[in-house]
Every structure is written in C-alpha cells, then in structure tokens.
Amino acid sequence: MAKGIKIATIGGGSSYTPELVEGFIKRYDELPISELWLVDIEAGREKLEIVGDLAKRMIKKAGLPINVHLTLDRRAALKDADFVTTQFRVGLLDARAKDERIPLKYGVLGQETNGPGGLFKGLRTIPVILDICREMEELCPDAWLINFTNPAGMVTEAVLRYSNIKKVVGLCNVPIGMEMGVARLLDVDHSRVRITFAGLNHMVYGLDIFLDGVSVKDKVIDLITNPDNAITVENVPALEWEPEFLKALNALPCSYHHYYYKRSDMVEKELKNAKELGTRAEVVKKLEAELFELYKDPNLDVKPPQLEKRGGAYYSDAAVRLIHSIYTDKKDIQPVNTINNGAIAGIPADSAVEVSCIITKDGPKPIAIGELPVAVQGLVGQIKSFERVAAEAAVTGDYNTALLAMTINPLVANDRVGKLILDEMLEAHKEHLPQFFHN
Amino acid sequence: MAKGIKIATIGGGSSYTPELVEGFIKRYDELPISELWLVDIEAGREKLEIVGDLAKRMIKKAGLPINVHLTLDRRAALKDADFVTTQFRVGLLDARAKDERIPLKYGVLGQETNGPGGLFKGLRTIPVILDICREMEELCPDAWLINFTNPAGMVTEAVLRYSNIKKVVGLCNVPIGMEMGVARLLDVDHSRVRITFAGLNHMVYGLDIFLDGVSVKDKVIDLITNPDNAITVENVPALEWEPEFLKALNALPCSYHHYYYKRSDMVEKELKNAKELGTRAEVVKKLEAELFELYKDPNLDVKPPQLEKRGGAYYSDAAVRLIHSIYTDKKDIQPVNTINNGAIAGIPADSAVEVSCIITKDGPKPIAIGELPVAVQGLVGQIKSFERVAAEAAVTGDYNTALLAMTINPLVANDRVGKLILDEMLEAHKEHLPQFFHN
Amino acid sequence: MAKGIKIATIGGGSSYTPELVEGFIKRYDELPISELWLVDIEAGREKLEIVGDLAKRMIKKAGLPINVHLTLDRRAALKDADFVTTQFRVGLLDARAKDERIPLKYGVLGQETNGPGGLFKGLRTIPVILDICREMEELCPDAWLINFTNPAGMVTEAVLRYSNIKKVVGLCNVPIGMEMGVARLLDVDHSRVRITFAGLNHMVYGLDIFLDGVSVKDKVIDLITNPDNAITVENVPALEWEPEFLKALNALPCSYHHYYYKRSDMVEKELKNAKELGTRAEVVKKLEAELFELYKDPNLDVKPPQLEKRGGAYYSDAAVRLIHSIYTDKKDIQPVNTINNGAIAGIPADSAVEVSCIITKDGPKPIAIGELPVAVQGLVGQIKSFERVAAEAAVTGDYNTALLAMTINPLVANDRVGKLILDEMLEAHKEHLPQFFHN
Amino acid sequence: MAKGIKIATIGGGSSYTPELVEGFIKRYDELPISELWLVDIEAGREKLEIVGDLAKRMIKKAGLPINVHLTLDRRAALKDADFVTTQFRVGLLDARAKDERIPLKYGVLGQETNGPGGLFKGLRTIPVILDICREMEELCPDAWLINFTNPAGMVTEAVLRYSNIKKVVGLCNVPIGMEMGVARLLDVDHSRVRITFAGLNHMVYGLDIFLDGVSVKDKVIDLITNPDNAITVENVPALEWEPEFLKALNALPCSYHHYYYKRSDMVEKELKNAKELGTRAEVVKKLEAELFELYKDPNLDVKPPQLEKRGGAYYSDAAVRLIHSIYTDKKDIQPVNTINNGAIAGIPADSAVEVSCIITKDGPKPIAIGELPVAVQGLVGQIKSFERVAAEAAVTGDYNTALLAMTINPLVANDRVGKLILDEMLEAHKEHLPQFFHN
Lengths: 439, 439, 439, 439
Hints:
homotetramer, alpha/beta, Rossmann fold, 17 helices
C-alpha cells in the first residue's frame, strides 16, 4: 500500500456512492486513497457516469489527490486493489420489486434478506460474488472484500464456504443504526453508547447496552416499550412491540425481527402498503430517480442530504469506517459479518455471524459471546439453516435444494406454497439465474 | 425387585390402560409384575373403576398372580414402586379441546404438543410431574419414571432441569409408528426394519432407514413421494408432501412435521375440521365415551380392538416394551426421549432429545448421531428453544416468560396475537394454572 | 456377498492367523466364508506358507468349504473382498526391538503404541495402510477395513483423515481383556459383565462396570486396589496401583496406563527387563520362533494353546466377532476404534476414539458418553494431539513435524532428548521410512 | 466511585507494593484513587509498615491526595472497595522453598504454578481467596477482584467455580514480558507489538505476533531459534529450544514451557541450582531481604530500580494498567485470566483461560480464538484437568483427590512417587492446610 490505497467498488453506479466518497474524503488524512475505481455493467453505464461525475466534483472540491476511474472492466478495477467493496444489485430494483410482489401474491412476506425475496437475491448474487472472488485470487489476492450487497449474511456464508477468499467482511447498517437510535433515545453522543451485538445479518440482537461502559439495557428496554421510542430503519414498517414480550426477550431486537415476531401483522401491513404505496422497491425506485436527477446537477459537489432517506443510510459510511480501522490497525469495536470461530455457541465455527468485533489490520476478531439467550437460539439457528441451504442452492443450481431452502424459511413454512412461489420466481428471474437453467 | 415388580401408573383411569395391561400380560414370563397400582384423582374415580375392573378381568383370564390396586392415594401407589408410568391429563379432554379451539380463533394452530396448545398442556402438566418427582425422591428413589403424558419432550426437559429425578424416560408412539409404517410399505416384518431416529418429541426425523441392516432410505423416500404411501398417525390430518421437497430433505419426517412444513394448509384444514367434525379432542372424547361403554361390559376380558383407533395406539405397548428392556438389560435399540449427552450436535448436552438408544438396566444410552442435516438443525433448535422457555414458564408461573414462549413458537410468531391467545387461554385454564394466579 | 464371504488378510503370515482361522471356523454357520486370502510380502513368504498350511489343515479338519489362498499379490487378494483385515508389521519384530531399545538408551520408554516406539511404528505403517486404502477404493470399495496393526488408534486416525475409506474399524484386545479380567475377578461368566469403555486406543478407561446390568464399579475398583487382583496384559509389566489414586480416578484404567501414571517406575522396570530378559520384542521373537516350530508340525490341525501366551491373545477372536456382528447386523455392544461423531465430548467429531459401540451392518455406532471425568480429559487429549501430529508426520515425511510429535509425547517431553531419539531412530529405520528420505 | 476510587490490596506488605504505588501515581490523572488500603496479617506486620511508609513517602513526593491505610483488619479494607488486589503468599517464601525442595528430593520439579509446588500453593491459597470472596459479597459486592497471587490460573478457576464472585480477573506478568521481549528483539517500541495470546496461566502461547498490525510471527520464531535471542523471565532458567521444534510448534512458547518441553533437562538444572545457588525461593528470599533494607531508608521516595530483578517485574504495573482500563472503559487489548466463554475451543466455557481480551468497564471480553494448534491442545488440556482437580482438592480437603491431582500432573506422572511427595508436603505445610487435617 506504499503509493496510496486503491479501492475497487463493484456496483459503483449505485446511488449510495456519494456517501462512500464523502466517507473517504472525511478520513483522507489517515486513509490516503490514491485511486477509486467505480465499476459497473453496461446496463448501469448511465448511472455510473452520473454518480462518477459527482464523485469527481466532490473530490475536486475537497482538493484531494484521489483519482476516480469509471469503468465497465471489472478486471482492470480489481488489479492490485487493496480493498474491494461490493454494492451491486443483480437485476436492479426491478428484480427486488419481483422479490417482494410475487411472495405477497401467496400471502407470504418477500423480505429481501432472510425471506423468499432474500433467497432469490442470494441466488442471483452469490454466483457473481464467487466470480469476483475468483478474479480477486488472481488479481488482488491480498485485498479485503468488503461486501454490502444483501443478503449480506448469506453472501458472506457463501464466500466463506465456496471460495478461497478468506479476507471477507459483510457489512450492514442495521447495528450502527441501533446504536445511533439508542443514543438519540438517551440523548447522548453516539460515541458514548456501545451495544454487544450477536446473531446473524438482519437477525442481530443487542445482548447488552452500555452507556460510558455501564449497562443501561434494562432502562433502554423499558424506554422502547413506549412505541414513541421505537428504533426503526426506513426499510421496515414500524409496529409496536408488546412490552411484556420485550421484557422477557431481554435483548434489543433489530427492525427486521418484526418479520419473525409479528409475522401475520407484517403480511397485512405489506399487503396494504403494496396496494396503496407500492412495495419498498417501488418506493425506492422513485427515490432513486429523484436522487439521480439531483446528482446530475453540475453544481452539486457534496453528498445531497436527500440521500439519507434512501434507507441504506450509514451503509457506505460504515464501510469506510471499517476500511479505515483495518488500514490503520485501529482496534476499535464494530459489528460486522465474519467467521464465527466459536464466538457464538451453537453456530458452526466456520459459519458467518454478525457480531461485535475488534477491527485490526489482520481483520475483524469477534468477541466471545458464549451462549445466546435460550429464547433466541432457535430463530437464529433457523435462519442459519436457511442461509446455508440457500447458499448451496445458489452454487449448485439444484431445484430441490432451492425448494428446501424456501420451505424451511420461517416466513414460508409450506412446501406446497413454497413450490408455487419458487416456480413463479424462477421464471420471473430466469435471465439472472443461469445456474438453474443451463444444466 | 426380589419379590416381583411393582408398577405405579398415574392416570390409571385412562382409556389406554387395557393396552398397558395387555403388554404386561404378554411379557409376564420375563417381566414378573406382582403389583400394578392404578392411581387417579377424584374426578377420574369412575373411569378408574371401570378400567380397573377390566384390568382385573384381563389378568384373571390370563391366570397371572398380578395384584391390581385401584387408588386415589398417589403416595401409597408410589411407595417402593420399581417403575412409575405417567399417562394423566390435567383438565381431561375438555382442556385439550380448549387448547385446540382457542388458537384457531386467531388463525393459529393449537397443536397439543409443540404449539400453543402444547404450551398450555405443559403449563398444566409440568407442576404435577414435578410434584410426582418430589414424592418419588422420598418414596421410590430408585424407580424409573416412564412418562407418556404429552408434551413428552417438554415434560422430560422439565424433569431433567427442575427435578432431582435422573431416571426418567419420555415415550412416544410416533417413531414406532413410523417403523411399522415403513415395514408395511416394504411389506416386511417390523423386526427387519430399523430407523435411525434423531430430533425432538413430535419433531423427530428418520435420518436413515435400514432393511436387514442395509440402507433403503432412498427407496422409502421415493415410495412416500406417492401420496398413497403416506405414513400418518390418527392424530394428524394427512396431507401430501411435495416430492422434490422430500427428496431434498433426504430424511423421513414424522406426521407432526406437517404443522411446520405445511403450516398455512394445516390451519385451513383444521379450521374446516373444527367446523365440520369438531377438533381432535372433541372427536376423541366421543371415541373415549364409546370405549368406556365397552369397558363396562363384565364379560369383556381382553383389550377391545376398537382401542387401536384411539390415536395413541402402541403408546402403552411401547411403554411395556421399554420397561421390559430396562428390567432385563436387553440392550435393544428403541427411540425414546432422554438426556442428549452429546448424541446430537448443536443441542445442549443436558437437554432432552428423542433419539435411538440402547436400552440397558442402567437406562437408555443414546447412539451418537453427530450433526443433524443442515436443513433441519434450525427447526429442531427452534422447538428446543420453545420447550425450554415453556418449561421455565411452567415452573415460574411468570407471565412474560409465557408470552415469550408463545411468541417464539413457529406456529404463532406474533407477539400481539400471541398475547391475545395467551390471555384467553390463561383465563380458560385458570383452575389448572395456580402458579400464574397465586402469586 | 451372495456366494459366500471373501476375507483378505494382509500380513497373513502372522503367528496370530491360527486364532483368526479358529474364529472363522467357530462362527461358520452364521458367517459363511468361502474365500480366505492370506497375503504377505516376499520377506514373509516362509511364515506365510507355514501358517497357511496350518490354516488349511484346520479348515479341512472342520470339514468346511473355505478356500484358503496364500499369495504375495495384494491386489489379487483385495479384489472384491468383503472384509480386509490388516495385521502386518513393517520391519517385523526386529523393528519393534529398535522401537523399544533406542528410546531406553536415553532413559525414555519406547512403548510400541503411544510412545516414541509407537510414533515410529506409525511412521512405518501409515503409508502402507494408505496404499492399501487406495487399492481398496479401486478393487473393493464396499469392503470393511478391520485394522489390528498397532498403533491402532493412530492408524485409524490416519485412515479417517487421509484416505477416502470411511468403512474402517480399529481393533484392540485390551478392552475385551479388561472385561474378561473383571469377569474372572467376580468369578462370573464373561457374558454377564459389560464395561462402558471410552478413550483412545491403549488409553481407554472403563467408565462404568456392570454385572447383569447393575453397576459394580465401586466393588471392582475396591477389589483391584488389592494387587493380587490386578488386571494385566502380557505385554505390559504389572505394577501395583496406589489404592487412593485408583479410588479418586474412579474408573478402570487399562494396562497401558502404567506408562503414564507410573512413568519413572516403568522406565526403571523396562531398563531392568531389557537388561535381564530382553525387551518385549525380543521375548516375543523367541515365542514366535517356538510357535512357528509348532505350526510346522503336519499333524497339528488346531490352534495350539501356546499361542495364548503371545500377548495379543483375543485380538483375532475380537476381529472375527466384529466381522460376524457386522455381517449379521447383530447390534451387540463392542469396544472398537471408530470416528467419534460427538460420542466423547472434547475430542474432535472427526477423530478416532475407542468407545463402546453398537455393531450394525452399517458399521459401529458409538454410544454417546458425554464428558470424560475431568481428571482423564487431559491425558486423553494429549495422546490425541500426539496421534494427530504423528499421523501428519507419517503422511508428509516432514522432519520438524516428527520432532514435534516426539516432543509433545508425554513419555519424552524434551525437545533435545526427543531430537536425539528421533535422529537415531530415523537412521535405524531408514529402509522403512522412504517418505523421510526421498524428498 | 463518586468520591475517588478505593483500592484494597491484600498482602500489602509485599515487596511488589512500590511498583503498584508507582503505577497508581503515574496514572492518577485518569485513575483518581482516594484511598489505598494495604492489608496484611500479623506475621507480616513489620514488612507492611516498612513498605507502607515507603508508599506514603512516594505519594507525598508526587503530591497526590491518596490516603494510604496500613491495617491488619481485612474487613475494614474491603468495606466499599472498588478494586481488591490480592498478592499475598500463604506461608511466605519459606513455604515456597518447601514447594521447590521436596519434589526435587524425588527427582520431580516443584514448579510453583503448574507443578506439585503449584498444587500446594493452590491448596494453601484457594481457601483464603474463597474467604475473601465471601467477605467481598458482603462488604463490596460490586468490586473487581484482581488476583495476582499464584497459581493465578488455578485460583481464577476456583473463584469461578466455587464462589459467587464473578467480577474476577487473574493477572500474570508473563505475557506482557513476552511482548516486551519481542519488542526488544525487533528493536521497536512495545506499543507497536501485539501478540495473540491463548492458553492457560504459565501455559500460554503467542499464536500470532504483529508489528504495526502485520504478522511477523515467522520472523520472530526464526529469530528466537538463535539462543542469544531467547525471551525469558527471571524465575525460569533459560535453556535453548531446538530450532526445528520451535518451527513445527509455530507459536511463541512462554518461559514456563521449558518445564514441559525440556522436562528432564530442567530437573537436572534445578537440582544443580538447588545445590549450588539454592532454589528460586531461597534466592528470592535474599533479594527480598535486601529490598526491605532499601525500603527502610527514610530518604527513599521512589520505587528502587533493584525491584526489577525480583522476578515478578511488571506484575504490579500490569495490575494498574488493567484497573485503569476497567475504570476508564478503555477497550484496549490485554492478556488476562478470565472465563473462557467459548473463546478457546476445547476448554469448557466456564473455565478460566489466559487469553487476549478487550478490557471494558464491564470487564475483560475474550477475543474468539477458535481451535488451538493441534500440537498444543493436549498439553493445555492436561494442565486444565490438573487445575480443576487441584481446585477441587483445595476446596474439599480430600486426600484422594489431592493424590489424583498430583499423579495426573505431567511433571509427576507416577502415583507411587506422587504419594510420597504428597505425604511429605502435607506434613510440611500442615499449619496452612487445615482443610486436610480438621475433618
């Protein structure tokens, strides 16, 4: 890394990119990036150019010697990269809209990460990620792969099990959002709050909550039994927790837990939303169009504030924070998706978990958590079973394995209905699922 | 056990008792019982007398020196017993009818073992079982407790965790029924078929299937993809498995898996049944009334064939077979609920599992299974979480813990709906749940 | 196995072969062997012929249609075999004599299984066993490999880790000898005694001892605190246990435990024996010469009683008993070396252990033991570490790894002395250790 | 902790105390101690006064408002303490001399932590520590117990298993010494070196070594194969490692590993030392006498440099560093003895381990290490077995259990010799082992 750091961002045309660039600019003093390669595919060329130009203007304004390259040539971008970040979306938001719409037709939540929607996002994404891994082995074997393409847990699991890349981290904005939410609730600075995170991606729990190092878990749980204090993310409709449930759970759930602890209510809500507002993908699509209109403005040279409504806020910032800590061997605590290594009892040592880690130059080192609370072991284990079977289906393209993944998903739990959804989704996503159609 | 074996049967007035007696008669040569104490409570006195008199006639016909005692004095029955069998039902079938009806009102399956119905059956049963355990410590500390009161898994878990009785076995007729079903399918004698069972009570899988020691799993799974070949129990409505699902599962599910792998279809079916035929409890209640009419016949001195339609067929026979193998140190293989001890990876060593065991005079010794298939680890873990939280709620009488158990149950998965069901069921079963109302 | 069973015995010229043949004759009714191939190498041709002719006379006397083939062509012997037994000794007894003599020069026990002697026996044996495994994959992929070449634990570990043969069982006569010793002590028939065995080969403990299914462990431990009641094997000099140690251990040690719980006394004793009587190998060599003189007698047509003094008594009989139980799916309990699969906590699931198993046509199924007593976990773990590092050294031929295995061995525990022993033994066994000299 | 921190130091009359005081003075800005209570027993009154007066002079010189209390009243010292540090020595150095001398008479190393000497130090110390724990429950239930009395691993194990105090940390100067040694070797500042520590107290390995976050393990191991580069502590005679052994071990051993990987050589060396120089205790006794002569000097008001030769250098500084990090929620990485919690595979989750931890106000959080290298699992497990059996013997005062601990110790490994040592040591330490003599 002598001559400055090279970053390759796959899916560089994403609307999130300005946040990424802003993060790099903010931390330039300690994270001297010399090259930022934004890669995209032909279908994303226009967006890549719009957002790439904005990136250039932002860097110019900051007066930093970071070269921004816009390219459709992934291999050129990967060559000698120090960090590879992945934020692409196979099939774009239209594919996500199908992930959400089709299951709902059968009364089932789509849920783009751990539900049937997530299954299909995984089936489309994992082969591409594994291709990238193979290229990384050849072109930048020492680079870190920082993935924030969803389903981040399943993708990390697949990389750990089916590639030779071991320097991989999966990233999510949910835990950081929970910490910021708690800080707002307590009316203190974010830096004073620390949550002990453990679980899986979008299935993570705050097992303990500290303010200046002293546990305030009971107080926080008490506070959030008041629905006005709910901590939510833009992507998930907010519903109120039953206070007695929350107290017995004795841990901070994440927004995505609504799908598993309020299943039938969420089905109703999403059916209603889909009808009245469109699904989340459809809403986001509009937001994105508006964002890209803004990005086109040749006078814009900062990240526009509207981006924060996009839902993935802090994702890119979390990525830059992580890269910064790895590069500087900072040894701070961050929640990321990494190999379990025994940190959480009951999850295989070689599986991906989302857990509080020390971030070193040698990668994230999970803090040993021990046993999850009895009441959450089951659901976490069930999503891990799902992730593993889904990853296998993505790699093998085996129909039966895909049906198995669909059926054991707790939002589906029905082999007959699962098959209906599977068949319709396979057909709808055919173009992006060659592994299921070419053999 | 010098002077002959003493058996104490709690819930002796059960309609199953004639099968138990028949089992003892058949095996008398190797299992020389001298005293059979049938115990019941005041409310069951009439049934106890009817079934007790039949038992006496059966033994008289067999010409065996077994003394049958009918009593409401549990302590007298337990005193110096060698085996204690438990087959009682707190609140009788009326309680079970509520366990089934109330959740259905909210669109949720009752499921008397691992669902909300099972939760309430556990809440009513566990305190009684723990009382029996305390009495056993005092009155017959060397006796074996053979429990076949449902939910047998949760009850065994509770005894292992919350009593000092370590000589406990939970028994179920489901695995033996699966073996007999496979034997019928293959048109061979039951003795030639052996299934490797692993999982939890009513959540057990046949991981491998042997005919004369050679695996025929693939063949059997292939056969049962034909719905005409379904292996079912009377208690669970039969629905067809998707063949591709079954092949990917690559294990023999039990009948109760329909609730978890065909959830929404089972809701519909049970709603329909409840409307047209009554719930299973209501059906059984009629069957039982008919059975007791038969039992009253002073000329009847054998187990009437009608009993086999009752649903619990082979339960009592399985119990006698187990007692026989313990008493004679037979070292045969039987599937029972016992302490895991590492046999199934991923389930706590001190939790109850249902697994193929060698039955010795020193109790059942589980065969080391290793890891469950990835796809089933999750669901099994989820039911174990549920069983453990439910057992804790039963012992503590804590409302919040009961709500937690209800909410994490995969058939409920909704804290709001769970609370509605919980509140209505607590009220309905108030009389039998003193631990929730007396503090 | 339609036309009768084919057995291939590698090392067929061994002095043990008559016991093997006797075992096959005794069990012929249920174990209809049609072909017995005794294989040896050129250097063993004479012994093979002597013992092979005796085998033929024994079978002729028994009037059974078993064809005995004597051959130096291992591939011909393996072709379509149903069971492959291995009882060869690379370098013959002269090599064992070096295994014992060289370490003693440095004040260290040789110990032909778990000591430096065992390390070298493993280094010589494992490459040959892995060759046999490769041939089995090609020539008899469905056969069972029944290994009783020492060090049986290390060899089984190596087959499990470094070959594709999964149908492998390691066999030892020590546990069966312990059961027979306890039976003699209690003056009862062997069939009434059952010991719960767990540990590793030559590092196995009787965790509980049953007479007719009832624990008599305390009584037996009490008995053997009397040195007149010691249970020993011919191979290991008997020394008295301290009664208080034995009571605190609360388990039945095997003879080989003297090396680890009486280390310095055993060094002295073996030094004295080596001087006065010769090492065990040297004693055995004389016994063997005498046996082969007996075997030559053309009138001898039964196993001569002198064989029982050889030290490995019951080895071959144990092998036949095991083959019999596998072939007939007998489901009896036998202690063998097999994959742990979670049966013993704290030992890797994929490592070999010696443990009580149910023997089925599908192989041995270990009984779940759970945790070993705290006091023995450490030593068992240490030998497992040694076995694994030693197996790696055998496969890689890496000098440093061999030195590591030598140094971590509890009988050596000295890198400097270990290096001296290693260097001298490598030189002495050069001919049989091509992997260390050819790269 | 509003009005400043209260420290209670049990064994306050120790020669280490000036280092402790120096540490507190250095960190006063962030660690505002208001009260330092130095406690000792009657026999230590003179030393307490000498060292206590020096402490007062040091604080006076620093101009800090820390009140130093000298007392024989332990309860008064514990009352409302925030941190309790333990550095006492039951029986003083005379007892240690016996711990070393007696085993050597039988050709066995004493080894004051993990050998027979350590066993007896544990038997004397653990009951006192458990008394302190009981008093802490009553007098300062929120305090942290920072133990640096040896054997620190066994003591921490005993507190975790046999007391209700969960806020306990065991501390050792060995790992910090290894890091400083590596820093010297690489000629860099200590702050740039970080070692991943895992194992047990005095049985800890450096699994990886980082310079500025980049692994330099291979380089360091290469360097220390040169005996001039050995990293040693004053307490353990230095011997050279065989380079090939070290390379295969592929981890940094600690000084105490000489006892286990150079056992017979260390016996010889210690026999020679004992004869020529006296045992370590005898050497230290002289050093201590000289130190106390220095301490008496009324003009001395700083820690004299001679203390660093004492052998326990950095112990007290490590303690202050730990207290500082806990108090300030510093979240830095320090190697300490704490509950394993799954961090090291194969060691019980509820046992003490020595491992790199993040130090928070909520205590040390171990970094998940996963599996130890195969070659070291065994020895680590053996010492853990020893520690657990020894702790049980200390608590129960059971002779047989003590003999079991003695015999399974890898330095003894002989029940007969173990009994001789045990009997002589029990007699020699009778006064301090009431649990073995009063029942």
